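Q: A reviewer asked whether we had any structural model of the full assembly, not just the individual parts. We don't, so I'm hoping you can provide one. Inputs are below.
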Amino acid sequence: MNTNKICFITCVNDERVYRESVFYINHLDIPAGFEVQMIQSKNASSMTQGYNSAMNSSDAKYKVYFHQDVFIINKNFIHDVIRVFKSNRNIGMMGVAGSKDMPASGIWWESRSLYGAVYGSQTDRMELLQFEDVHEDYFPVQCVDGLILITQYDVPWREDLFTGWHFYDISQSMEFSRVGYKVAIPRQEQPWCIHDCGIVNVSNGYDHYRRIFLDEYSKDLFPLVSILIPAYNQPVFLEAALKSALNQEYRNCEIIICDDSTTDDVRCLISRYQEDYTCIKYYNNGGPLGGKGALNVQKCFDICHGQYISFLFHDDIYMPNKINTMLRYLLDESNIKMVTSYRRLIDDHGRYLPDLTITQPLVSENTKISGYSMGNFILKNIANVIGELTTVMFRKSDICGYLTNYYGYNLRCLGDVALWLKLIREGDLVYIREPLSCFRIHDQQNTYNTEIQLMAAIDWYRLIEISYQNNIFIQNKDDYCSALKKWMTMHKVIIEAMAFKCEKELYREFIECYQTAQMYAE
Amino acid sequence: MYRNLLENSYSQLGTARISDATQAFDLQEVVFILRRIENDIDKERNLAQLVQLVTSNMVATSDVVRVIQKDMIKKEELLQIVAAVCYKQGITDLFSAF
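A: Here is a predicted structure for the entire assembly that you could use as a starting point for your response.
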């Protein structure tokens, strides 16, 4: 390896433009004793193949891989590069633009932490593309754009995976990280390069290679998300739910299925899928654990390993971009405690149903909502506008204790509402206008069982009462009375309708709640 | 990722409204010449080449201005440099483009 040699490597399909870029290299200032080599790779079958071939044919310690339409205008380019590399042996590769972290989409420029600068014509007009400034000698990033990549070590390009013209650069950033080197953007007093690329075209295989990139590197880049499926019979619905989980664009997921079933159907179904998908983990409970499914929900949560949680009821389904879209908000801001979205209703055949009042879009565009105002709205309107367990995504670490316990009270029916309130008492939520999941309405649900309606009524009363007592969401007497009046209005009908249809103990408890509410509200 | 974009860039440039004079010449060469001047690479020789192209009607002054506005970075500074050199050679219509 020649430590006093730098090699400029380019895949060329336009000789004239390449000659012009070489013209600029010929005008760079060359450090004393340094040798400059140029290699053009013609007829390369892919960027990675062309770069590997050139890399292996040069003994230069320093290599510059750049597009034929890049013009290096910093005449001290070689000096600057060598200086940063010599004083930072742990930097493997540098570029002039990139991102500190990779969005779950795999599209680096969608990151909110972009660094570096380059003159470019991506908008069809030459202009400065200026991201965050680099103030020190360099700034470590996750990935750099392939318009120019400067290395001081040779790491093979992944020509086994990236057989076209996209994602070779982001992949190479990951390969350097895998072997323990930093990827960085140097400080540029003025942008070092002009990139005369014209309007960005992503129609020629970009998405294909994006998927390959996500398959290969998701586990390196992104946190584990646990998709939790508390199962109870109904294997036909469960299979649709499972397929929607497996079809997520986000790759680093574990799928936990805890099975309360009374038959063997679910176990048989899942074992078939486990042959092909190692991310599926199945636990048979040997029958219902109790608590009307609440204990099974808790078990899923307790045994999962993901940093982020997304429940999926066995009869619901996800849209393919659910995890991807929601995770982005949770990664961006620690004060966002949950992300929810508009959800569509479907029937037992998966056909869309019209919205109910409660499921209509909450806002017209993606919106961050304060936890307090959402909690206040939910309790004063007796309305779970956030959605069911399937709808939401949150961090595992944001939950202490049992999911369905609210200030010591164990919810019997409205465990999801208790969970939402627990989460948003510590921060805010994001509502995404796009539908990201579907809630199935079908005959085998027990939502309209009279006992459950009574338990729900009692749960709502307790949530209001406990929130007021703890000065959370309902922080004054007016709001408290308003919430109680709304609750009484909504549940008055239960007094007559259910008096003789359900468990006497439950009914007595409800009447006690009603009488107390009456006393306060008046 | 940008490899195949180069063609887009220049094909669009090619479809821009180019004067009759410049049709005889390749506009991409004008881009290269102006960029070298802008970046102080063999500046005097490239300025002389540009003037020669304009005086010989190979390139219209309106196209020089258009390229500067679309493809260059330091647009005003470059226009002034080019205009000053052209003025010395008796080419004054570049100023009308300001």
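A: Points you may want to mention in the reply: The interface with chain A takes residues 1-10, 12, 28, 31-32, 35-36, 39, 41-42, 70-73 of chain B (CB under 8 Å). Residues 5-97 of chain B form one domain.
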